[in-house]
Amino acid sequence: MRCLLCIVLAIVGSPALLAAPRRPNIVVIMADDLGWGDLSCQGASTYQTTQIDRLAAEGVRFTSGYCTASTCTPTRYSLLTGVYAFRTAGTGVAPPAAPAIILPGVPTLPGLLQGAGYRTAVIGKWHLGLGGPGGPQWNEEIAPGPIDIGFDHCFLLPTTNDRVPQVYLQDRRVLNLDPADPIRIHANKPSGDHPTGLDRRGSLKMDWTHGHNQTIHNGISRIGFYTGGERARFRDEDLAAEWVKRSVDWMEADRDRPFFLFFAAHEPHVPRMPHERFQGKSPHGFRTDSILELDWCVGELMAALDRLGIAEDTLVVLCSDNGPVMDDGYADGALEKLGGHRAAGPFKGGKYSVYEGGTRTPFLTRWKGTIRPGVSTEVVATIDLFASLASLIGVGIPVGAASDSMDVLGALLGEPGEKGRTELVQQDNGSSGNFGFRTGRWKLVRHDSGAARNVIVERKLATTKVPRFQLFDLEKDPGETTDLLERQPEVAEKMKQRLAELVGPPPERKG
Fold it and tell me: pLDDT digit string (tens) for 282-304?
């Protein structure tokens, strides 16, 4: 008996078993257009993001957390595939009725986790295209889509809410669609009396400033034309609560298996139309009211984990798909009521920009009982979740997959001495050839277009001429105010060469 006990103790205490990977639940919460400085734990002082602050206090807050693109579709593509979006054509911001961008057979993070026994779901904004080459067939079964690339379940806003149509996709079909009232997407205005933001501007409950003036739904005009599907259409004000309810219900089901939930929030993307209970609750208009709604969503999800008794079995990651923007097409008070709020924190730029404000965004991790709370200066990025989570659960990555994802698990878990990324490429929407490249303290900016958009996020969107190359010391100059290109020629040349290896050489300028 003593010998048997010795054998059991030896097996239990063996290093191989002690080092066996834990397989926690994983919740990734991705905000939309949330800036580094939009959280009160990162300097916002005129309102409080209480629930997100709590998440930060219970986990690791990264001061150098990044997404890889300053627009939404390419960031989401990179998160799910572990590949920089600029390597794949057609990964810029997806238009209404775009076909699926990630096709069946492409290795994905949810597919990896699904293969390891995880239940997987995406709930919220998708904006990665749906359907075959002709785009989604709205009145039929829609494929390919999330269900074909590793998700067991989806409940989605198909594109983004300023683009038509305003309906939910549940798994492969539009929810509540009446076959007698099919959805039709039109290339042009379908009839003379079709309601648009141009023709019926006076009827809008939120006016437009540029674009966003085609089909009207719920008193807000959108990009694109559509008719039909009246019973399937949602009310903007109800989006967040519906996604929270669906997420909590899904997490509660089949709790014996680990799960991966990608909660893709819409806040604070335009049109910013939060639920009535959040309207007027912040001093800066509907943009920051929407951030308070996002904060509520986070609190509800965390409360569900506590109620289900699985908070200590769940790794939570909060991030954003790109940096902030004020006027992005609607007159919602974001500019007029901005005051002293710095949505991008100390950084220059924002959405559409390859300066730091475009891609350095909120990034938090929490795993109760496992992650020691603190603040980290290590560089981590959303693209790294693929390799890091594979490492966490002890699953190998298929050969050739996730080629740009780095295993920074130790940094994500806040382990002392563990390092983050050594280098990072930042892109804008991908079509302009504008890139940022960070390695250590140094940041090289390459504007192949010769222009930078949204250089100062507090002003209206503007295109400003800039040099093709600029070099900044982010340790001394996080706001990228002083170009050191001529003072540090060796550093600049080395970084130019490395960036060219990663993204290709800069094209010759014409004229």
Answer: 999 999 999 999 999 999 999 99
Both structure tokens of 279: 């309207």
Poorest-pLDDT segment among 29-43, 163-177, 460-474, 491-505 = 460-474
- Length in residues, the chain: 511
- Report pLDDT digits (tens) over 98-157: 999 999 999 999 999 999 999 999 999 999 999 999 999 999 999 999 999 999 999 999
Query: Using CA atoms, how far apart are residues 70 and 353, in angstroms rounded to an integer?
Result: 6
Q: Name the one residue in this structure whose structure tokens are 């993307």.
A: 269
- Gyration radius of the chain's alpha carbons: 23
- Of 145, 143, 144, residue with least CA distance to 156: 145
Residue 418 has pLDDT above 70, yes or no: yes
Listed in sequence order, the residues at least 6 apart from 449 whose beta carbon sits closer than 8 Å to its beta carbon are 432, 433, 434
* Domain boundaries defined on the chain: 22-183+228-412, 424-503
* DSSP string across 403-449: TT----HHHHTT-TT----S-EEEESSSSS-EEEEEETTEEEEEETT
Contact 68, 75 (CB under 8 A): yes
In the predicted structure, residue 266 carries a pLDDT above the cut 50: yes
Instruction: Give CA–CA dist 152/216, Å, rounded.
Output: 33
CB count within 10 Å of CB 111 equals: 22
β pairing state of 442-447 and 434-439: antiparallel
Listed residue (187, 188, 210, 213) closest to 200, CA to CA:
213
DSSP string over 473-488: ETTT-TT--S--TTT-
What would be the CATH architecture of the domain defined by 22-183+228-412? Answer: 3-Layer(aba) Sandwich (3.40)
CATH assignment of 424-503, given 3.20.170.30, 3.30.420.340, 3.30.1120.10, 3.40.190.10? 3.30.1120.10
> What strands lie across the sheet with 469-473, from one edge to the other?
424-427, 434-439, 442-447, 469-473
Q: How confident is the model at residue 453 (pLDDT cuts 50, 70, 90)?
A: low
